[in-house]
Design brief:
The protein is α/β, with parallel strands linked by helices. It is globular, with a radius of gyration of 19 Å. It has a domain at 1-158: TIM Barrel. Helix 5 (110-125) runs parallel beside helix 6 (162-171) and helix 7 runs parallel beside helix 10. The chain has eleven helices and twelve strands. The longest helix has 18 residues, at 182-199.
């Protein structure tokens, strides 16, 4: 299992660059960034990736509804060229409360929407012609979008339910997870996506898992800090369903939390569950975050 880390792209670019340089100095060669309501993540990664040429970057994830496949494919291929071919494009459906409440776009039949979106964007990312016409998504490209001589970015989708996992396994390179516990990955995520990939004759899928991590001897305090920082997620239906499947009631129940030895064991459990890359979200006090960084480096050095 590869160790990666989340890169916060909110705030001024110079601060993001400084964070990325520091993470690289600490030994991280894979960084994942979310697109929520801040700066455009792909643009930021193009700037950061021009400086850190030996780092792999990924989006976890870009919401697809406000972005036509042609536009997103062109942007991704441009970023891919800018950073030297190290981009993983993670895309997702966001949440109904955001899509309909903030953007005024229908969230109807989300799995169908994603299926049509993949059918349109995947050939474009490969630089191929496409003429896709679906119920919700239509796209035509008669020549490559973005730079012509560009290595294809890896395409992953945020997939939690069975239909989305089948799409991820059969049509993309894998999935990007958040707030999904180790037991659920082992019994639901991993077998479903791997079966879909095998049935489609595709390579073993990537399972990228992002979770909070806190290394601390103050377990009650650490749990309180994790639950406070991520309090929004149990209110969102897709994450609530994964937490229910896990038997978890709070974000701390699915995070990696405990002493150095306990967290090392939890990392092993993630790998055994089928995770191919863990993207860490260090949480808590400055000392707890630094302790988490040390444990992540220790795990990476020994595996």
């Amino acid at each position: 299992m590869r160790i990666a880390i989340g890169l916060d792209t909110d705030g001024p670019l110079e601060k993001t660059l400084a964070r990325a340089r520091r993470l690289r100095e600490q030994g991280f060669t894979s960084m994942w960034s979310s697109q929520i309501f801040g700066p455009d993540t792909l643009t930021v990664l193009a700037i950061v990736g021009r400086e850190l040429r030996d780092v792999d970057f990924g989006t976890s994830v870009i919401p697809i509804q406000p972005r036509h496949p042609s536009m997103l494919a062109a942007q991704a291929r441009t970023v891919q060229e800018a950073i030297g071919g190290h981009l993983s494009l993670g895309i997702g459906l966001s949440h109904q409360v955001v899509v309909e409440g903030l953007w005024g776009i229908s969230f109807e039949r989300p799995a169908t929407y994603m299926h049509e979106y993949i059918n349109a964007i995947a050939p474009m990312l490969r630089g191929e012609n496409v003429a896709a016409k679906g119920e919700r998504i239509s796209a035509v490209a008669m020549s490559p979008v973005g730079p012509k001589e560009t290595r294809t970015p890896s395409l992953l989708i945020a997939a939690l339910g069975p239909k989305m996992l089948e799409l991820a396994g059969s049509l993309t390179d894998g999935t990007v997870l958040w707030m999904t516990g180790r037991k659920t990955i082992q019994t639901h995520i991993s077998p479903t996506i791997r079966a879909a990939a095998a049935a489609a004759g595709r390579p073993e899928p990537r399972v990228v898992c992002a979770l909070p991590i806190t290394v601390s001897d103050d377990i009650p305090g650490a749990r309180e800090r994790v639950n406070k920082e991520y309090a929004i997620y149990p209110t969102l239906p897709s994450y609530a369903a994964m937490m229910e499947r896990e038997g978890a009631k709070e974000p701390a129940d699915v995070g990696l939390l405990g002493s150095r030895q306990q967290v090392l064991e939890q990392l092993d459990e993630l790998a055994q569950a089928g995770v191919t890359e863990y993207s860490a979200a260090p949480t808590g006090t400055p000392a707890e975050r630094e302790a988490a960084i040390d444990v992540l480096r220790e795990y990476a050095d020994s595996h």
